[in-house]
Amino acid sequence: MRNLQVIEHPLIKRDISLLRDKSTTSEDFRIVMRRLASLMVYEVTKDLRLSSYPIETPLERTEGYNIADEVILVPVLRAGLGMLEAYLNFIPNAKVGHIGLYRDETTLKPVDYYAKFPPNLSKSVVILIDPMLATGGSASAAVRYLKEREAKNIRLNCVVAAPEGVQLLEREHPDVKVFAAVLDRALNKNGYIMPGLGDAGDRIFGTK
Ligand code: PRP
Ligand code: URA
Fold it and tell me: Which residue of 84, 156, 186, 202 sits 20 to 30 Å from the alpha carbon of 91, by its own alpha carbon?
């Protein structure tokens, strides 16, 4: 799984445990998801390019920096929305595209229902955000959508990845790097990640 980077940190491990815990309320789940995404932003954006400009400190002139890359964030609806605000805190001028996908409960194949993207996908760093990478069907479909619209520099930030999903993405989109907070054991027969954290969308929005 050469395309996978698991971001290891004690604070991340603590937060995943809170997300996994079935007694964590939706309110706390949202808070922890946002905090965990914030911890990951640092590593996912480490290679962004900088431009420099002169600034005056109270003492002398020196060099300041701006992010030179255009960044487009693409949350996969619904669960990706739980990570979006963390990114916008750090990159407030990022543009946001949305992809609406849900997994058909029996086939486990993604069904798309919404897509809206800002222009300039081809010249931007595109960060796809979705906490769960299970079979990989949704992420792979989302990447296909982005590539059809000329996106070239795409990375995926998930929280929990299953080996099956990482492998599917590596096969279908070897150019897409996957950042995860943890690589879990496997999928169960219903396509849920084990041990996982359950249905991320339902837990974020309290729909079950
Ligand atoms: C979840 C999750 C991913 C997808 C992962 O969304 O947020 O998008 O499942 O599964 P996959 O890797 O097997 O495709 P879900 O379909 O539950 O939609 P929701 O966020 O609207 O609840
Ligand atoms: N989607 C989720 O929200 N959770 C899983 O375990 C698998 C897919």
Answer: 202
User: Which ligand is nearest to the Cα of residue 196, counting in written order?
Assistant: 2
Answer whether residue 105 shows pLDDT above 90: no
Closest C-alpha residue for ligand 1 atom 8: 138
Distance 188 CA to ligand 2 centre (A): 10
Q: Are 176 and 167 in contact (CB under 8 A)?
A: no
- How many Å separate Cα 77 from the centre of its chain? 11
**Total-model pTM:** 0.97
State which ligand 2 atom lies nearest to the alpha carbon of 192.
6
Q: Which DSSP string corresponds to 109-135?
A: -EEEEEEE--S-GGGSEEEEE-SEESS
- Residue 75 in contact with ligand 1 by CB distance below 6 A: no
Domains annotated for the chain, with CATH where assigned, are 4-205 (3.40.50.2020)
To test the pocket of ligand 1, the residue of 132, 133, 140, 173 to mutate (highest count of ligand atoms within 8 Å of its CB) is 132
Separation in Å, CA 160 to CA 5, 92, 116, 120: 12, 25, 25, 29
Ligand 2 first shell, C-beta below 6 A: 79, 132, 134, 191-193, 196, 199-201
pLDDT at 127: 98
